[in-house]
Write a structure and sequence with these properties.
Blueprint (H helix, E strand, L loop, with lengths): L5 E2 H7 L4 H9 L7 E2 L5 E3 L1 H11 L1
Antiparallel strand pairs: 1-3, 2-3
């Protein structure tokens, strides 16, 4: 079963942070989105949420 991916807004709500915070850590090279859609939406899976939770907490 393929992993369900969520957008940056959904990930930010799940981790109680902001889109800007997530983008900051991406720009610093600490983690990358699972996929960047052709329309520019960044999508994240469970592994990215797990990585980001360790960065935030």
């Amino acid at each position: 079963m393929p992993e369900k991916l969520v957008t940056i807004s959904t990930l930010a709500r799940l981790l109680k942070t902001t889109n800007h915070t997530i983008r900051y850590y991406e720009d610093e090279g600490l983690f990358k989105p699972a996929e960047i859609a052709p329309n520019g939406y960044r999508k994240y899976g469970m592994s990215q949420a797990y990585q980001l939770s360790f960065i935030l907490f």
